[in-house]
Design brief:
Layout: E1 30-34, H1 43-55, E2 60-66, H2 67-70, H3 80-91, E3 95-105, H4 114-117, E4 125-127, E5 133-137, H5 142-162, E6 168-175, H6 187-195, H7 209-232, E7 237-242, H8 263-269, E8 275-280, H9 285-292, E9 299-300, E10 302-303, H10 307-315, E11 321-325, H11 334-346, E12 356-360, E13 371-375, E14 380-385, E15 393-400, E16 403-409, E17 411-416, E18 422-432, E19 435-439, E20 451-452, E21 456-457, E22 462-463, E23 469-470, H12 485-488, E24 492-493, E25 495-504
Parallel strand pairs: 1-2, 1-11, 2-3, 3-6, 6-7, 7-8, 8-10, 9-11
Antiparallel strand pairs: 4-5, 12-15, 13-14, 14-17, 15-16, 16-25, 17-20, 18-19, 18-25, 21-24, 22-23
Helix pairs in contact: 1-3, 5-7
Length: about 500
């Protein structure tokens, strides 16, 4: 496995004219969304999704390239749609990650062209133990692997020749590969099982032999596709995992994909992938970040549309890319939209190799009044989540000695020093759109004892009885409001604060 995530230029994506041959500058952290599957199938739906991507403040987007549209007839390739997608993303200043929907998509074979799907003799399917064929191509089908590899190589060759601005920064090889079976039992799979004497093998690190067997088969198939692509264009390549609890019943997930239990198998059998990615919809987001961030870049191509996950992934887990799936669904959700825009202000500030920590109260796992410690060495941020708040998340970035930028919501923070000195707030500014919105003191800061992540209040514009327009109020709350349920129910989104701390001895000698 190549442990390096080869994005190098620490700048935001530059908006350039369509057709310009200058390479795009690369954001070091990729913050964005993954298009719904069919939204990359026509120019019209591509444009609609990309316009929303920009409106949300994202700097990157993931979008599918479907084998059936790329190679509708064997050996005849149509790059019209792919070219349009790359140009449209580049025109909007977005970095683009492509998702190769080849032999697998969500454990099924829905996206191969008809000449593959219709020829079940050449491109045979996985089979259950009683011989019933599945709708999924078998990972033991060499013909399917060869056809998939040729198509993917053509895609990568075309990108190398045409994407002069290097809009495309990474490609996902397949999507959530595997088979909804304990193991594939087609004739080719049975032969491999018997020749490898898999029935006699003990479990590997507690993982049943059939899971390791399927992981090896899928990993080798995907690696062959990746190798063919890299031979044409050496972009960073990865694949993703459909995650389920380790004790989940067979048939509830595609067996063979790079789930946590078989990560080592995939690393061993798929050396042409630069990393393995988790699709995290599970409640224990932090645990999955830790598992997939160990020894490789943490790149999350799919997660649920909970902004707190972004804050934790970038702030605490060291993620280099985070994308929520189907962002188009929440285009009219004011909380989601405002949170994304706020993150669009924060993410560029994380690209300067500064110490950063984050927190996220996970629904269904953490207590409503959960507490977290963000340890900066000479100063510890003690985060106290507020029970009545629906959301609690945030991050802190060190910008200088005793100076920090903090973004968050639904909690209050105080500080402690390892040497026992008192630590208080010397100065606090609320930042909006890169400028100082208010200078906070007195009640708003508990007289210097705390930072209340009161967030930004947003209300609807109104009209007075005489017809005079009344703009929406966008003001903050006193720290005392953290005790009032009425304040918790107000609609608000993450606030950004620039603070400076000071210290003094706890006791005079």
């Amino acid at each position: 496995m190549n442990p390096l995530f080869r994005f190098s230029l620490p700048a935001l994506a530059a908006v350039a004219l369509l057709g310009c041959a200058q390479p795009m500058q690369e954001p070091r952290l990729l913050f964005g969304g993954e298009m719904h599957n069919s939204n990359a199938s026509t120019p019209e739906s591509i444009d609609a999704s990309l316009d929303l991507t920009v409106a949300l403040g994202y700097n990157a987007v993931l979008a599918p390239v479907c084998w059936e549209q790329l190679e509708p007839e064997q050996g005849r390739f149509d790059f019209t749609l792919t070219d349009y997608l790359v140009r449209a993303a580049g025109k909007r200043g977005l970095r683009l990650g492509l998702l190769w929907f080849g032999s697998w998509k969500n454990g099924e074979s829905s996206y191969p062209p008809l000449w593959v799907k219709g020829d079940t003799k050449t491109y045979f399917r996985a089979e259950s133990e009683d011989g019933a064929p599945m709708t999924t191509i078998s990972p033991f089908c060499a013909a399917a692997c060869e056809a998939d590899s040729r198509a993917f190589a053509e895609l990568m060759r075309h990108l190398r020749e045409t994407d002069k601005r290097k809009v495309v920064c990474t490609v996902q090889v397949e999507n959530e590969c595997g088979v909804f079976l304990p193991r594939d039992c087609c004739p080719a799979a049975r032969k491999a099982w018997e020749e490898g004497k898999w029935a006699e093998r003990p479990s590997e690190n507690g993982t049943p032999a059939e899971q390791v067997f399927m992981a090896e088969a899928c990993a080798r198939f995907v690696d062959a596709v990746a190798a063919a692509g890299k031979a044409e264009y050496d972009l960073p390549l990865f694949t993703n995992a459909w995650l389920m609890p380790e004790d989940a019943a067979y048939g509830s997930y595609p067996n063979g994909g790079p789930r946590e239990a078989v990560l080592d198998v995939w690393k061993r059998c798929a050396p042409h992938l630069d990393w393995l990615s988790p699709d995290i919809y599970a409640s224990d987001f932090a645990a999955m970040c830790a598992a997939y961030g160990e020894g490789q870049p943490l790149f999350i191509p799919e997660t649920s549309r909970e902004p707190g996950r972004y804050y934790y992934a970038f702030g605490e887990a060291g993620a280099q890319g985070v994308f929520c799936f189907g962002y188009e669904e929440d285009h009219d959700n004011p909380y989601f939209v405002q949170e994304c825009r706020t993150l669009g202000e924060v993410v560029p500030l994380l690209e300067q190799d500064r110490p950063v920590h984050g927190f996220f109260r996970q629904s269904g796992k953490d207590a409503l009044d959960a507490e977290f410690r963000l340890d900066f060495g000479d100063c510890v941020f003690r985060v106290h989540c507020i029970e009545g708040e629906q959301y609690a998340h945030g991050l802190a970035v060190r910008t200088g000695e005793d100076e920090f930028l903090v973004a968050g919501l639904g909690a209050w923070i105080d500080w402690e020093r390892p040497d026992g000195r008192q630590c208080k707030l010397a100065w606090c500014e609320e930042i909006r759109d890169g400028a100082v919105w208010q200078v906070l003191n007195g009640d708003e800061t508990g007289h210097g004892n705390m930072l209340y992540l009161r967030g930004r209040l947003w209300q609807q514009d109104e009209t007075a009885p005489d017809g005079t327009p009344v703009p929406a109020a966008r003001y903050g709350l006193s720290h005392q409001r953290r005790f009032l349920a009425l304040a918790h129910n107000r609609f608000k989104t993450t606030g950004i604060y620039r603070i400076r701390l000071y210290s003094y001895p706890a006791h005079e000698d």
